[in-house]
């Protein structure tokens, strides 16, 4: 009686015999299920491509989930081939992301999350262009503007900094102050 191992489409789960074991626990599992086999294979290829580029497995998995979400949304829109997706479809997805609510907090996605989604999709199309699956990258004509978060930090003047150094009583306090 031998053991057999089957690696599923989800790169984070492995099945040994009839017992399921999670090999890496990162975040809650994705609820996105791709039904189109080509999209499923494409998402897996993207994850492998990210690992081959030297990205950390956690960040590669996050990008994998972002790409899966994008491909799932494209499935819902009726696009069955990645070659059918162009600039208008990516712009529509960007608009969708701006309206989408976070699964955890039920608030609109933050600009940084949206930027992460778009960056993952851009990387997907770069991969497809390198592999010569597509002739031209639809991201070559796109430019998304992101809101820059204003910093509430007010820099200290030279006299205020000197006052802080003068109030230090030990060398350790001066060292800590110099790190700031």
Task: Tell me what you see in this structure.
This protein is mostly helical. It is 49% helix and 6% strand. The protein contains 6 helices and 3 strands; from the N terminus they run βββαααααα. It has a 3-stranded antiparallel beta sheet with strand order 1-2-3, with no helix packed on it. It is elongated and about 70 Å long. It starts with a strand and ends with a helix.
Reading the helices and strands in chain order gives EEEHHHHHH
Main β-sheet description: 3 strands, antiparallel
Number of helical segments? 6
Tell me the fraction of residues in β-strands, as a range: 5-15%
Q: Measured on Cα atoms, how large is the radius of gyration?
A: 23 Å
- Structural class by SSE content: mainly alpha
| CA-based shape | elongated
Fraction of helical residues = 40-55%
Termini separation: 63 Å
* Order of adjacent strands in the largest pleated sheet: 1-2-3
User: How many beta-strand segments?
Assistant: 3
Low-confidence stretches: 1-9, 11-28
Question: Please, what is the average pLDDT?
Answer: 80
